[in-house]
C-alpha cells in the first residue's frame, strides 16, 4: 500500500513487508492519527511498540490483526505522570535494546487549566515534558538502532525521531520564565501553542545534538483533523473552525493526518536531512503573512537555537535527569 495517503502527496513509496528488522515506538495509539500511523507502519513488517493510557481502547481501535500480532507490543503510558513514563521506558528496554523510529504522537488540546500528577501545567506536561523524558530514557536504544536495521537498498540508516507539533506553534513561544502559566495568566490556546512550539524546538535540538551520532529528528504539523483531540472545544468553537472559508477546506481525515508522520518516519526522500518542520508530506516553508492566517508554513520563532538549548536544559532539570 502507499504510505503518503494525503492527496497532496506525490511521493508514494511501497514499503510493504520491506522493513522486518525495524523497530518503531508510537505514543497515543488508541485513537485518531496515532491509530492510523500504527496501521500504516504495521504493513512494513516492522515490530511496533504502541503506547496508550487505555490499552483496551487501543486494542479495539487497532483491530485484532494488529493488536494480537506477535510483532506488536501494547504498553501502558499515562503522559500525565512522569513515573508512568519511567515505567514505560523500562518496559520498552526490557523488550528491545534497539529502536529505529520514535514517534511522539499523543497529546491533548485546549484543556481547562489543570496540572499533571507532577504539578506541571497540563498541556505542557502531557504534550511535551513526558515525551521529552521518554525520548531521553530511550536514547540508548535509538543510538543502538542507528545503522542496525538496513534500509530496503541494503544500506544502514540513522534512527528517526518524529515529534507532533502543530500550526498552533504560532500561538506562543515557550514561556521559559512562566512555563506553568502562574498567577492567573492561563490561556488554553497559548498553553497549547507553547506545548507544540516546545515539540518543534525539541526536534530541532535533538537533531542538533545527535545527528552526528545517528539520530535525525523532525517536527510534524499533521493538519486540522476531526478527532478526539477536539473534545475540550465547544460546539461553537468547532463550528467556527469548520465554517472558516480558508481553514475549513483544509481539514483532513485521520488517515490523511497520519500521512506526514509516516512519511517523516520512513521516506528515503528525507535521508541525510533533519531538524526541519514537515507539513503536507513535504518540508515546510516559512509562513508568508500575505497568504493569510491559515496559510502553511512555520513562524519565525520556530527556529531559535539559543532558546531550544535553554529549553533542553530546563527540561532536564524539571524531569530530574542529568546528561
TrEMBL record:
Keywords on record: NADP, Oxidoreductase
Phosphoprotein as UniProt keyword: no
Keyword Zinc: no
InterPro entries xrefs: NAD(P)-bd_dom_sf, SDR_fam
Classification via PANTHER family: NAD(P)-BINDING ROSSMANN-FOLD SUPERFAMILY PROTEIN, RETINOL DEHYDROGENASE
Family, as annotated: Belongs to the short-chain dehydrogenases/reductases (SDR) family.
Protein name in the entry: Short-chain dehydrogenase
Amino acid at each position: 500500500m502507499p504510505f503518503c495517503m494525503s492527496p497532496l502527496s506525490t511521493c508514494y513509496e511501497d514499503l510493504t513487508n520491506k522493513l522486518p528488522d525495524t523497530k518503531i515506538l508510537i505514543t497515543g495509539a488508541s485513537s485518531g492519527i496515532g491509530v492510523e500511523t500504527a496501521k500504516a507502519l504495521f504493513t512494513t513488517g516492522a515490530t511496533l511498540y504502541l503506547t496508550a493510557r487505555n490499552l483496551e481502547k487501543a486494542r479495539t481501535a487497532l483491530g485484532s490483526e494488529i493488536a494480537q500480532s506477535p510483532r506488536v507490543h501494547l504498553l501502558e503510558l499515562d503522559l500525565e505522570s512522569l513515573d508512568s513514563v519511567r515505567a514505560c521506558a523500562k518496559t520498552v528496554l526490557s523488550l528491545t535494546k534497539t529502536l529505529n523510529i520514535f514517534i511522539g504522537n499523543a497529546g491533548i488540546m485546549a484543556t481547562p487549566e489543570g496540572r499533571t500528577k507532577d504539578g506541571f501545567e497540563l498541556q505542557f506536561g502531557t504534550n511535551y515534558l513526558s515525551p521529552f523524558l521518554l525520548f531521553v530514557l530511550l536514547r540508548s536504544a535509538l543510538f543502538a538502532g542507528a545503522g542496525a536495521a538496513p534500509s530496503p537498498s541494503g544500506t544502514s540508516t540513522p534512527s528517526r525521531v518524529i515529534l507532533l507539533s502543530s500550526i498552533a506553534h504560532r500561538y506562543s513561544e515557550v514561556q521559559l520564565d512562566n512555563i506553568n502559566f502562574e498567577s492567573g495568566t492561563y490561556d488554553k490556546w497559548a498553553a497549547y501553542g507553547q506545548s507544540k512550539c516546545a515539540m518543534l524546538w525539541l526536534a530541532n535540538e535533538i537533531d542538533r545534538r545527535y545527528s552526528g551520532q545517528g539520530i535525525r529528528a523532525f517536527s510534524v504539523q499533521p493538519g486540522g483533523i476531526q478527532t478526539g483531540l477536539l473534545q475540550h472545544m465547544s460546539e461553537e468553537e468547532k463550528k467556527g473552525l469548520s465554517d472558516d472559508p480558508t481553514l475549513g477546506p483544509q481539514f483532513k481525515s485521520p488517515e490523511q493526518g497520519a500521512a506526514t508522520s509516516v512519511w517523516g518516519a520512513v521516506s528515503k526522500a528525507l535521508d541525510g536531512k533533519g531538524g526541519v518542520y514537515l507539513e503536507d508530506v513535504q518540508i515546510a516553508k516559512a509562513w508568508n503573512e500575505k497568504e493569510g492566517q491559515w496559510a502553511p508554513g512555520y513562524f519565525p520563532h520556530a527556529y531559535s537555537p539559543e532558546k531550544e538549548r535553554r529549553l533542553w536544559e530546563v527540561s532536564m532539570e524539571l524531569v530530574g535527569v542529568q546528561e
